[in-house]
Amino acid sequence: MGGKGKKGIASLEKQQARQVKEQQKKKEEKKKGKKEDRSQQQKAIYVVNEATQELLGQIKPNNYYTLFELASKINTPLSLARRAVRELEAMGKLKQISKSGNSRLFVAI
């Protein structure tokens, strides 16, 4: 009625060696993955003036826009789109018509 018994020393050593190799492979893959991710994550850097000019070309009169829509149109972060929208508001090209929490709605003039 006894159990199967314990594993032998040789098999335990082999198992431990396999685990060490797997851990080393995972570490190497992580290092390679991080280097590749950094190179892929580089985005184009826009200056506010460039983003403003590009937004002017993308917006159409009498259409409604949110900040997220405008940022995705010119493929920039929201912070840069927010600055560009402020400039367009100062120029009189956009007008804020609604604000609810963090979302704002604009109309092109």
From TrEMBL:
Comp. bias regions, Basic and acidic residues: 15-40
Gene3D superfamilies noted in UniProt: 3.30.63.20
Tagged with keyword Ribosomal protein: yes
CC per GO annotation: ribonucleoprotein complex; ribosome
Keyword terms of this UniProt record: Ribonucleoprotein, Ribosomal protein
InterPro entries in alphabetical order: Ribosomal_eS25, WH_DNA-bd_sf
Annotated stretches, region: Disordered: 1-42
Family: Belongs to the eukaryotic ribosomal protein eS25 family.
Name this polypeptide is given: 30S ribosomal protein S25e
